[in-house]
Structure formats: structure tokens, C-alpha cells
Amino acid sequence: MAQNENTQNTYLTFRLGTEIFAASIDKAVSIIEVPEIIKVPRSPSYMKGIINVRGTVMPVIDARMKFGMKPIEIKKRTVIVTFRVDIEGENVDVGALVDEPGAVIQIKKEQIMNRPDIGSKYKSELIVGAFTHNEQFIMLVDIDKVFTLDELTEINDSKEEHSLEEHIEAESHK
Amino acid sequence: MEDFRNKFKEEANDLINALENSVLRLESAPHDEDLINEVFRIMHSLKGGGAMFGFVKISEFTHNLENIYDEIRNGKKQTNIELVNATFESVDHLRNLLRDEIDASIEQKHIELSKRIEKLVTDNTENQSFDEYQDMILNGDNGAKAVPKAGYYIYFKPNADIFDNGTNPLFLIDDIRALGNTKIFTHLEKIPTFGKFDFSVSYTYWEILLETKESVLEINDIFMFVEDECTLEIKKIGDWDLVSNEKYIEAITKKYSSDKFDYQELKSLAHTIFKPKETEKHQEKKVSEKIQKFAQESEITSIRIATEKIDQYMNLVSELVTAQAALKMYAMKTKETELLAISETIENVTEQIRDNALSISLIPVENTVTRFRRLVRDLSVGVKKDIEFITEGTDTRIDKTLLQIITDPLMHIIRNSIDHGIELPSERVKAGKPEQGKIILRAYYSGSNVHIDVEDDGKGVDIEKVQKKAIERGLIANDVHLTKEDALKIIFMPGFSTAERVTDISGRGVGMDVLKRKIADVRGDIEIKSEKGQGTRITLKLPLTLSIIDGLLVTIGPSLFVVPLTSVSRIKELKIKDITSKYQNILVMDGEQIPFYFLRDELQIGGEYPEEVKFIIVKYENTRVGIIFDTVIGEYQAVLKPLGKLYRKHDIITGASILGDGSVALVLDTNKIIKKFSSKEIV
């Protein structure tokens, strides 16, 4: 990629609940249908299990739970976005369950705002910025951080947030 | 750059291992041209690579060695014991030089060894000229045949007063001899009888046939300072190996007269014996031989592939196997003959690809055996025993990681054989055995396993000693009398070691129990057979690869699990109500108390066990534990896939395996389960 394009980055968007998120396209590998997920006993609830992706075994996480939302329900539009992330200096392929895949968009650097003040609703340390695209507010996530081991070991599922999310979910599906 | 350096290190390590191997063989076959060539090539590669990647010391160090071996391969030098020894030490030293930090002791060794090798460069030259001298006298031949040579006739008659300025004509003759093969006719006819003999006068003159690759100028140079004090003729006879040809020498010897040879006659004789046609052919052949040899040397017989790529390839292959299985199922459903035929072809090819992929990921046992050869050589000298180390089937291939893991246990077994197995030469003779002991390392396939035997013809296991020790250590009761089989089993029990004293070699507290555990960790088994006074054989039974497990496919609810077959000791069908009523989860079976546990609850799978359950008894060391599953589907060869970093805390699950229909089964590490269970800290 040429140097002068450096000011413009490409992102993949996806929906979690009612929010739209974006991750750097460099990290994304593919978008796949949800196959049978084999649960690995005694693992944190947001670690959904493992799947068979073209002969390799890949762990899958529930991206909504990761952001402190209510667990994902697998519906028609639910997909797994597979990412190649850096875990302790090693490239690891992992999958994230998201409610709906979005689009590949290009955003100029100056369009990106600092991390929005979203209070305690989402795990704000995973969000590195935000921007508006086609009048849609999109939050930019640091996908490496989403899968960092330390992050994965701590589970923080507050009941109130769930009910709030449930409410929103119920609203949006009416 | 750092990347390249690491690559070089990796490569250099391989080279050094190959070097060690070659030198070991060179020791018993010092004139083997192929070996000498190989040693030279390795030195050459090390030198070049070392210089390129900043390992200056390696480059400097190998330079002299390379030169020595170059001269040997050109027939200018010969291998000798000191050289082989120095090369051995160099192997160790080169390994040290590859390290990033070079400490003072290595520095010291570097200087010392460099000096020794430098000395060899010069020392050997003298030796060699002596050798050549002998060669000439004995058969007038030497090994340097590959270079095109010419035959010369030299007539050298010193003037009578040549001694006056201190010239010794014999030195000049020696100089000529140094140029190549010679046939020397010394004319002593002119020496007067004793009374008339004048010490200050030279009476002798020489006629010499010289076969050399040097030019006339070179020969002339020898006589540079005596040109005015002698009669000298140097004439070329032709481009033939005159001196090496017995027929020619015989023919001209007949022509020998008290005066001198007729040059024309020498020449025509040569022409009749060496027909030009033949010479040409001969040389053509030589050239083609050379080209062939060069081609052989530069032929690339292997390439290096990153293990990562092989893993990737293996993944793709297992994906192919899965897809092929799906295709086969579909084809059988449609019953279309054409599709069935295609499916069959694909099945065939897939199988071959799978076998091929597997063989690529395996490396020959030989890779580690070289180290043992060295070990036996060094250690047997240390304990004053004469031991021959024989290897068989070292081209048997095994998983690389596995080979690394078993290298230590194997080394330990061999050390035991050297130290405790093989007797001192005097004892052997007393026992009616040959002085030289034997240790045989034998690798071979057995089903889907690789077996490695270490066999010695030493004194064998002394059952009475074992019995005594076992009582001493409290492993058995005083009045128990051990059978041979039991005694051999006890050797593997923790806290047992028959070594009477701690020696340099073995008896470091690492007993056979540790070996057994290590082998069990890689799903292998260890067996011992021994006959008192005849020897011991220890057999390691290993899986071909760590990535393929012979397992038992079982279920709990919807979950599929694979239990490694090596750890399964029994399967029993039981009623769940008979088990749940057991006190403290212990079942008595054949008089043995077997603790068991409900994997369903431990893994929080949920649901209830069916009425009839499968009670699988798994073993690890001497512990047996029962695990309860819903059903047993059958035997299954599982390709093991790691779960990756995110699941690394799951130590009771080794990995996952993708079944033929694409579903995924979790592979259980029964050893860990047992360990956790027996120490009451299950998961």
C-alpha cells in the first residue's frame, strides 16, 4: 500500500446488539457461517467453544459478552468473524460470534474521534475510538485486546447491564 | 539480520551433527574418499556461512581444518589419529562457538585447539613426504591421479667439484621427488675402488623419470643454483603417467645402460605403450568422471522446510481427508457408478497424500543416534571397557518432537548399559565372552508404533540383587520371593536403583521409574528383558507421531471424547445404580480397589448418565482409575489438534480431533486426570 494512503484506513464493521463496531481489516481473516460449536468443559461462559474451520480447530468467543452485553443468541444473521490476533507475540486464529456482519469501509484518520464517553455500558478499554459513517455511529475496537488472555480470564457480567441489553434487544426485534 | 543468524545457527547445528557423524565413521575408515569429501564440504560450508553471518571465530577456526581435509582429499595428506581427535574436539568446540556468549574457557579452548590444528597443517606435511617417499620406493605410485600429468626425462650429472660450494645433490633429488612420482636410476658405475676414492669429488649421476603436473619451469627451478656445476637435460616425453605404468618402467629398465638412455628411444617406447587414442579416451573418461562427481557434489537431495509449513500441510491434508469422507458418503447415497468411481480414485489419492504428509513430518532416528555413538566412544574409554556400538534400522522415522523427548531416556539407558551392563574385559573373558562388549540400538516399526531396542551382551539383571534391594527399600515384604518377571517390574518402581555406588555415568538418582514416566507421557511403553550373564534388552514402544493418537471414541451426552488407547486397561459395562451406591467412589474389581469418577459432573456437561454406562479403567504408572462414560463408539485414529493458547489452562484436555464427518471430539489426557484425581484436586 502506498504511503500517501496511510491517512486512510480500512475497517470491517459488524453489529453487536444494536451497536455497530469496526475492527481493522488487517486483523480479519474471514466471515463464516456458524457451524456446530463444541463446548469445551469448564471454560468461561463467553468462550463458546471450538469449531472446525477447514480442518483446523479454532476457539470461538461470544463478542457480545466480551463487551459486557447479554449472551448472543444464534439467529439467521449470526456469523463468526475470524481474526488473526496477536496473543503474547504469537499469531493465533480465533473466531468471534457477532450478530451481523457489516461492510468494509474506508475512514480517514482525521474522521476518527477519541474514545467516546459511553460510561460503564461497554468495556471501554476495548474501544479505541469512534467515527460517524453514513450517519451511523461506529465504535472502533482493538481486536488484539478483545482476545488478550488477561482479558479473557476475568468475567464481568453484571446483571443490570444484561437486563438493559435485553430491553434493547426486545425493542429492536419488535 | 538476527533472523538470518538464527537460520545459520540452525543450519550450522545440522552441519556439525553431520560432521560428527562423518568423523566417527572416518575413524574406522580413514581412507574413505566420500567421508573425507563430506568432512571437507561441511568445513567449507561452515567457513562460508560463518563469515557471512558474523561468526568470525567459526570461520577462522574451520579455515585450517578445511585446508587439511582439502589436502587429504587431493591425496597430499593422510588422516591420522591426532587429526581425528582434533576434529572431534573441534565438533564440540564449534557447538560452543555457535552460542551467543563466549566465555573465557571457550576462548581458551579456541586458542589451544587452533594451535593444535595449525601444528597439524605443518606436521602432517612432513609425515606425508615420508609417506610419499615410502610409496615411491614400494610401488612408485601415489593417490593423486585426478590431475593431468606429464612425463619428463631428467639427466642430472653434477660436475666433479660440485661439493666445493656446499651443494648436496641428494637434496636436489629429494626436491624432484616432491614434484610427483619418480623412477630414479642412480649411476654408481663411476665410483672408483676404495683406494682411489676422493671424498671431495662427486662421481655419481642420475637419470630420472618424473611424472608430475608441474611445468618444465618448475623442474628447472630446482637446479637454478647448480646450472653451471652440472650437466642437465630436462625433456618432456609426453602427457602420460609414465612412472605409474609398470609396463613402461619394465621396458625402459631393460634399456638401462652404464651411460645414459636414448631420449628418442624413451619417447618412441612411450608412444607404443601409450597409444594416443587410449590416452585421449582415458582423459575424456577422467573429465566425464570429474563432471559427474561435481554434479553429485552439487546435487540437492534435500531441502529445509519450516515446521510451521509442515503443520499447515498436515492441516490441509486432514481437511482433505474430511472432505473426501463426505464425498464418499454422498456418492454412496446417490449410487451413481460414475461418481462412485471418482470418489474411489480420490479416496486412493487422499490416502497416499496422507501417508506422504505423515512421512514428511517424521525424521529418521539416525538424527539422534550420532550422539550416542559419541557417548559410547567417550564413556567406554572412561570406564576402561571395550564396547562396540551397533545400530540397526536407524532410518526408521519418528516424530521430531517425540525423538527429542526420548533422546534423554535413551541416553540414560545406554549409560546404564555401559556402566552396569557390560563387564570389564577381564570379567568378560572369565565368563567366556569376547573381550569386546556390544551395545545394539535397534529401531523398527511394529504396527503403528516404533520400537527402539537397546540391547547389551553384559551381565544382565541380577534377580537376587533386585530382591535384596527391594526388601531394603521396603518395596516388598521380607518373605516375598520375587519371580524373574516381578523383579524386572520392580526395577521400574519409584525409589529403586540397583547401582551400588554413584559413578560418573549413571546412578545420579534418576531411576528407571523416571524413564517409564517420561515414556508414558508420550503415550509410549517401556519393556525390559534380561537373562543373567547374557545381557539385557530394553524396548521403548512409541507412537509414530504425537499428532496421531490411537484412541477410543466415547461419548457423554452430546460430547465426543477420545481416550488414548495406550492408557486404557479395561472396559466394563455397568449399571449406573450399582455405581452410585458405592461408598467413597471406590469399586472393587478382581480384588483390586479402583477409585472412579463421574466425568460428566467433573466437566459440567449436564444431563444424566443412562442406565447402562461404560466403566473405562485407565492406568498410569501403577495407578488405575475408572472413568464413567455414556457409550463407547469404537476405536478411532485421531489426528490431534491443539486447542491453542486461549485454552492452555485446560490441561486435562490434550487437544481436539476432527472426525470424518467434520464433528469435533476432545482428546482427554488421562494421565493428568489420574494425577489430579489421585491427589484429590480434580480439576
Short key terms for the protein model shown above:
heterodimer; A: 174 residues; alpha+beta; OB fold (Dihydrolipoamide Acetyltransferase, E2P); 5-stranded mixed beta sheet; 10 strands; disordered C terminus; B: 683 residues; Four Helix Bundle (Hemerythrin (Met), subunit A); 21 helices
Q: Could you say how many structural domains of chain B there are in total?
A: 5
CATH architectural category of the largest domain in chain B:
2-Layer Sandwich
User: Which structural class should the secondary elements of chain B be placed in?
Assistant: alpha+beta
Helix content of chain B: 40-55%
Q: Which word captures the global form of chain A? A: globular
Let me know the largest β-sheet of chain A: 5 strands, mixed
Q: What name does CATH use for the topology of the largest domain in chain B? A: Heat Shock Protein 90
